Structures are given as structure tokens and as C-alpha cells.
Amino acid sequence: MSKPLTVWDLPREEYLAPGHRMCQGCGAAIAFRHILKATGKDVIITMPTSCGEITSTVYPHTAWRVPWIHVAFENAAAVASGIAAGIEALKRKGFIPKDKDIKVVAIGGDGGTFDIGFQALSGTLERGDNVLYICYDNEAYMNTGIQRSGATPLGAWTTTTPVGKVWRGEWRPKKRKDLIAVAIAHNVPYAATANPAFPVDLYMKVKKALSIKGPKVIHVLSPCVPGWRIEPEKSVEVGKLAVLTGMWINYEYENGTYRVTTPVPKRKPVREYLRLQGRFRHLTDEEIKKIQELVDAEVARINKLVGKEVIGPVEG
Amino acid sequence: MKVEYLTGNYAIAEGAMTAGLKFYAGYPITPSSEIFEYLAKELPKVGGIVVQFEDEIASINAIIGASWAGVKAMTATSGPGFSLMLEGLSLAIMIETPLVIAYVMRTGPSTGIATKSGQYDVMQVRWGAHGNYEIVAYAPWSVQEAYDLTIKSFNVSELLRIPVILLSDATLVHLWERVVMKGPGEVVIVDRKKPKVPKDMYKPYEPDEDLVPPMACFGEGYRVLVESLTHDERGYYKTTNEVQRKLVWRLVNKVRKNKHLVVDSASYFVDDAEYVIVAYGTTARSVYALVKELRSKGVRIGLFRPKSLWPIDDDALVKACSKAKKVFVVENNVGVYVNEVCRFLKNKDVISIPVIDLDIPSPEDILNVMREWL
């Protein structure tokens, strides 16, 4: 068995230039950097409007050292499909060598993926286009000022799920939309979740996805300093705690098999994840208990899919 | 009555609640999101419902549904979102659904600068949707007027059973100003008219004399057939010239014939004006300052400000320009509304003064462009 990869083994080349306008401690910035390390330079990125798009391309600078196109909010996947088809046509006509591996990667936020871009994503997956779709999920519309999205977790404060006597933050009383299950329902060959607090895992998943032909989806948690109301130096810690509490599970799906890439033998209670974030500050013990139940159910579901207990019970 | 200090966005939200808003469907988009955020906090307190939808297509169609369920409904958006709403807008026109869209203009095309202002979309509002129709759109120039014209937008939409657009821009909605807000009974609130005929005699698209059919909503006991296909008075799909002509002309004429209830404008210093500037929305604020300054220097210049952009108050426009040798149309875009002004001032020298500015054109910039004709 080969030695496991560490951050020291990742390529030194940086295709996301420093000096962008993303926040200190931005989870998406860490994610983009490691995604690009995995794609290398032969990649074309499509990006819908999102905080990461706006802040990485403020005139007259761009942080992207690879070909990059900003598209309308609802169609990153559709434009990516078009680019993939264009490359295929150029190869058929002999303008590009047939063996040249040009990757097409769409990177959208959770709003641009779960909500407005959902139709285009479904189309890309359904047709089987050779595109890697990456959703960086900061669990709300951060670019327009922290409005809820289809990915906002139960109880989270946003400007459109305010906190008062009647509204207690995000109201959806169940697990949010399961993007990986949606992708698998389109019969994709590969789908995975990742987290910038585990950069090597993220890197390897992007690498693996790009080695597979057809549509692939990677869902990346992206801790957000202003939107989650966390301290900038805590974003990696929050990302790690998401995994250690079972709020987020790093796993992958490949041709019918599920594999948890970050096993957690003993879970921490979700309270430890929630208490670091201002967006959950209003939660009562009872509301936290409800969230814990949702997490327990999701952990049980994943364990069942994997076929053994890779995520353990809550300790203590 | 009470006095508040509000932004344009908050004033639009307050105006909508004064007018009787009960359902808001939203999707975040700069610079209109504060309307949504404000209503998310305030509307439930008065028994209303605020729901976030997955995009603007869903938002406009949700308010069409809510309006047919019997409540006053609205959404707010900006250019990219309005582009997505156009099919729904056309549907609302065809099935005669009262609703209000608060359209906060930003720069374009495409994403443009989301946080900055412009008046690029006045023609999109008029002509964007497919089919032939008349649209009603108001352009406030102050926060107070944003409040007042929001109420008027609801009233006109209920009165004529049409979608009405409140067209502001990023500058206005982020401006803080004093607003006099109306309490119950202090402002006229119009509700859609209900059928008076027996239930078995009701035809959903049979108009009264004012060309507006009384509106029975779902669940009120009437047989309501809401049809986006070309339909007769009963709501049945028909593919004849006769039905198509009758329907389209009625949809157009119900606005044209009731124009006096819709149009709104203001004229300043026009009685003896040799020069008249036509300007609307926030641009008119700079023009007003410029006109006052030129007046103090002895220039006989006036301002005509359409509050209803669509349809324009043409009688007032012609009157305001009756003595004018030259008419200037100042806009924060490449000069698009000038064509509408020209239509009514065929024998006048109408000059387009487009001044693109990310906030509002300054009086100096406007004067610099105009100077060559003065």
C-alpha cells in the first residue's frame, strides 16, 4: 500500500493567484486553490454569479490563471456542456489533438446549484456531458447579503429567515436537499462531498473525478466568515468540526459503491459545531436536539449505504 | 399618519403593506433584496406570508397563483431577474392577473455592476414580454414617491387587472429620506371588483363597460377557467381571428381607455419655458437642480417629469412643451425614452441627452452635454 498523500505532496503550482478580494478565512478560497491544483492548467472554468466569482475577478485583476468564463446565474452547467461539446467538435475536426485532455469544470455556489441552476445541472447530468460540476456550498446567498437558499440548514439565521418569536431562522424542518443523491439519481459515474478543512481529500476527489469520463458532481462545504458569523481564523476549525460532529460527511460514490473518506469513530455533539457560529446563536436546547436528531438520521443512512459503521455514535 | 426615515427599498415595502400586500415571493438580487428582507420581518406581523423561491421564474408565477387565490401579491427584482420573469409577465397580462413587480434597475447588460445605478431598462419594461399589450410602469424620484407610487401601483393593478411595474434604481432604493406614511383611511385603497351576476351566469373574461372583467378567484364559488391560450369570454380556447382580435384589442384598450386613471406627471417652471427638459426617476433630481440654477441666471427653462413612464401623460407633456423651442430628454442610459417623447412632439426639436453615470448624472455633466444646444 502506498503512503497516504499529505499537503506536502500536492503540486506547488498555484493557479489561483493571491491578492483576490475573498474574505480572510474564506472556505471557498481554500477550496478553489486546491481544486485548481488538481485540475492543472488544462482546464476551462465556468462560474455563475456568486461571491467567489465577484471577489476573485474585481477589475482590473483576476485570480484565475486558467481560462475562465463568468455566465448568468442559472446556467454554469449549460455553458460547461457547450464548452465540452465545442472541444469535442474541434477534436473531431482535427483542430485539437484527440488525446489532449482538456477538462471542463463548472463551479457554482449553493444558490446557483440547489436553486436557480438546478435545471441546467440536471440537464448536464442527464445528457451525460463530460463535465465536472463543483458546488461550493456556504449554505446561503452570501453575495447578495446572506439570504436563505435551498441549502440553508435548519435553524440558521439569514436575512430572509430572521430570528424572532415566530421565525427561528431557517424553518425547513427536515434535512436539506441531498445534492449527491440527486446526482446519483441521474446515474452519474462519480459523486462526492468534500471540505476545504481536508484539502488532500478534496484534491484527490477532484483528481479522481477528472479521470472519469462523463458527468461528475462534487459538493464542497465552504465555511463563510460573514455569513456564518464566525471568526476568520476559525473557518478551518469549523470545517473540521462539521465533519467531527457529523453535520458534514466526507464521502464518495463511484459506480454503485459508497465510501466514507473521513471516518469518524466517535462523533462530537452538534452543539460544538453550532456554538462557534453566530448564525446559530439563538438556538434553544430543544432546537439543537432537533438538529442532532437530523444528523443522527443522516449518519445512520450513510453507514447503511457504506455497509458498516464508519461514523460512530456521539461520545459522552 | 406617521413620519419615518426610510430607504427607497423600505419605503416600497411599507407602501406595499399600506396597499394591502399579503403575499411576497422573493429571490435575492442586488439591489432589490432589502425589500424582501424587510418584508420577511414585517409582513408576517400583519398576517402576510413571505416565501423565498428558487428563482425569479418561480417567484413571478407564485404571485400569479397567490393573486388568483385572492390576495394582493408582489415580487421585487432587478434586470437579470426581470429577464427571467418575462414569460410570467406575459402570462399575467393574458390571464389578467393583478400583481406588482418592484423593478430596481442596475447597470447592464448582463450582470453589469450589481450595486450601481442606471436607467437602461425602461424599454425592456415596455416591450420585453411577448405578444401585444399595454404595460403600466411608474418611476419615482424620491423615497416619498416610492412609497406613494407603490400604493398607486397596487391600486391600478387591482383596478385594471394588470401587472404593474414600479421602476426605481439602485440610487433611489439606497437613499434615506423622510417619508410621510399613511394610516388606514388616509389613502384610497382599491380592491379588484367582484362579480355581481348569479354564479351560473358568470363568465370569467366578460368585461364591464370599462373593459375590465370582474375577477372571481379560486374557491369563491364561481366557475373560474384561467386560460393562457387565446380565449373567449368563458375562458375557452378558440383559434379564430374574431376571438384573437377581440381579446388582444380589449387587453390593450382596457389600459388605453382608462389612461386618465393611470397616468401621472409633474411639471416645473414650464409656463414660459423656451427650453423644457424631460427626465424621470433619479435623473430628474439632478435635472431639477440644474433647472433651478439656470432659472436663477435668467434662462427660461422648465422640467417635465413623467411619473408614469408607461403610458406617458402625453397631454401634460404636450402642454408643458407648448412654448418650448427645444426639448431635451435627459436619461442615465444611451438615450432610449427619447423616442417615446418624440412620438408626441412631432413638430418640436427634441434632443437626446444621454449621460451614463453609475450613480446619477450630475447637473454639471448634464449641462456640459446640453450646452451646445442652449
Proper CATH architecture of the largest domain in chain B: 3-Layer(aba) Sandwich
What does the average pLDDT of chain A come to? 96
CATH superfamily of the largest domain in chain B: Thiamin diphosphate (ThDP)-binding fold, Pyr/PP domains
Order of helices and strands of chain A: HEHEHEHHEHEHEHHEEHH
Structural class of chain B: alpha/beta
Number of strands of chain A: 8
What is the overall shape of chain A?
A: globular
* Percent range of helical residues of chain A: 25-40%
- The Cα radius of gyration of chain B reads 21 Å
Class by SSE composition of chain A: alpha/beta
In the sheet with the most strands of chain B, the strands line up as 3-2-4-5-7-6-12
Element string of chain B (H = helix, E = strand): EHEHEHEHEHEHEHEHHEEHEEHEHEH
CATH fold-level assignment of the largest domain in chain B: Rossmann fold
Stretches with pLDDT under 50, minimum 5 residues of chain B: none
CATH superfamily of chain A: Thiamin diphosphate (ThDP)-binding fold, Pyr/PP domains
Q: How many domains make up the 3D coordinates of chain A?
A: 1
What's the main sheet of chain B like?
7 strands, mixed
Strand content of chain B: 15-25%
CATH class of the largest domain in chain B: Alpha Beta
Report what the structure shows.
The complex is a heterodimer of chains A (316) and B (374). Chain A has helices spanning 27-39, 51-56, 76-92, 110-115, 118-127, 179-185, 199-210, 225-228, 235-244, 270-274, 285-306, and strands at residues 43-48, 68-71, 103-109, 132-137, 190-194, 216-221, 251-254, 257-260. Chain A is globular. The longest helix of chain A has 22 residues, at 285-306. With 316 residues, chain A is α/β, with parallel strands linked by helices. Chain A is built from eleven helices and eight strands. In chain A, strand 1 (43-48), helix 2 (51-56) and strand 2 (68-71) form a beta-alpha-beta unit. In chain A, helix 1 crosses helix 7 and helix 3 runs parallel beside helix 5 (118-127). An eight-stranded mixed beta sheet of chain A has the order 2-1-3-4-6-5-7-8, with helices on both faces. Chain B is of the alpha/beta class and 374 residues long. The N and C termini of chain B lie far apart (45 Å). Chain B is 36% helix and 20% strand. Chain B has 13 helices and 14 strands. Chain B has helices at 8-19, 33-42, 56-69, 79-94, 122-127, 143-160, 170-173, 241-256, 259-262, 283-296, 314-320, 338-344, 363-370, and strands at 2-7, 21-26, 49-52, 72-77, 99-105, 136-138, 163-169, 176-181, 265-268, 275-278, 301-306, 308-310, 326-331, 349-354.
